[in-house]
Amino acid sequence: MLDMSNAAIADLEVSDFGICQAVMVFGEDDHAVGAYNFKVGTLVGTLCVLCGFDPAEASRWAEAASLHDLGKLWIPPDILLKRGSLSAKERRVMEDHVVFGYTYLKHLSTLAAEMALSHHENFDGTGYPEALKGDEIPMSGRMVRLCDVYDALRTERPYKKAMTHEEAVEIMLHGDDRIRPEMFDPELISLFERHHRQFEACFNC
For residues 169 and 172, what is the distance between their CA atoms, to the nearest angstrom? Predict the structure, then answer.
């Protein structure tokens, strides 16, 4: 089900590509690895509205953002769901999900493919896969980066407990041993700081 060739994908013509369409093409997330993420999509939609997007465009970006982790369908679940720390080799395998997502989405949705490839790039140049910096990172990737980190902090995983909204905000604005505010677009993190209660409401809906 997941070995669809690029040629077969290229024959499809799909507009406003989102989770429903992706499930039809690529199948369900049978191992619950987080390949489809409606919450990140809605968070990105909220951020788009704060940035002045009209509702239709914000909805389109939300649909695309819900697929930013599609590439996880091609990563072994025992790596993605591992309870302990990843080895260096396992981390390299895990990081490939951004390229897989881009590869499978590029013929279906340019916006979703861009988000898939760039959502682990950091504004300070410390991200992957290309260590892009600042405006080199597409705005779509910068938006997903911020919303994805918030969602990851708030969500329970096999290897961690969920944080409260207040805990997540504190880490995103002031940092910890893994996350630094410099990772995020300064204008976007400023919007988040001023309107973080909207993100909380969106996450809890």
Answer: 5
pTM, to two decimals: 0.91
* Per-domain residue ranges of the chain: 6-144
Q: How far is CA 93 from CA 96, 137, 173, in A?
A: 5, 22, 30
Residue 61 pLDDT level (bands cut at 50, 70, 90): very high
Q: Which CATH class is domain 6-144?
A: mainly alpha
Rg of the chain (C-alpha set): 16
**Number of alpha carbons in the 13 Å side-chain half-sphere of residue 198:** 15
Within the chain, residue ranges assigned H as helices are 6-10, 19-26, 38-50, 55-65, 77-80, 88-95, 97-105, 110-118, 139-154, 165-174, 186-204
Residue 1: pLDDT above 60?
no
Residue type, 128: Y
Q: State the catalytic residues.
A: 72
Place of tokens 């682990």: 120
Residue 10 has pLDDT above 50, yes or no: no
Which pLDDT score, from 0 to 100, does residue 17 have? 86
Sign of the CA dihedral 21, 27, 31, 33?
A: negative
What tokens does 124 get?
A: 């300070």
Q: How many CA atoms are closer than 13 Å to the CA of 189, on its beta-carbon side?
A: 21
Q: Which two tokens stand for residue 198?
A: 């909207």
